[in-house]
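User: I'll paste a sequence; please echo it back and then give the predicted structure.

Assistant: Echoing your sequence first, then the prediction.
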Amino acid sequence: FPRYQIGESILPSCRPIFELLGVWDKVEAHGFQPKGGAFFQWGPEEWEVRFSNLGDDTPNAWQVIRSEFDQLLLDHARELGVEVIEGVSVRDIEFDGDRAVAARWYDTKDPERSGRIEFGHVIDASGRGGVLATRHLKNRRFHDVFRNVAAWTYWKNAKPLSKGPSGAIAVCSVEDGWSWPIP
């Protein structure tokens, strides 16, 4: 940790959550790419959304580098007294009836080193792997509409959009699909 993940597009609606967590000033000061809204081109239609027109005092959001954003949040949690254990992976979750009560873990660099931790609450932050949903609850369901393929890449020296708010993402239809350019 931090691990590489494709970037993330944070929306203005996240501000109250960041303020509640006490991390807003750190997120704002970090220097992530500001995003003033979005531009849409779908077939012959074009329109834009400007965050400054949404009626709150947050005129922009950010495109974040996930590894930096995740590290910022983790460090903030640690500063608030959260016990952070890095370099381990959850092997199994123990239940008392329907309630998760403990996890068995192993060291990712030394699989012979392992342990068990008990808890009152659990948050499954295992991402797409979904440890609880796939291994224990077995309640992950995929909707046929979302069974598709996405391809992504990075571009160097690409020109910024000439339409839409500053730093805007673009959502554009193309034959047999759509694209989502992100600055």
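The first helix runs from residue 15 to 21. The longest strand covers residues 88-96.
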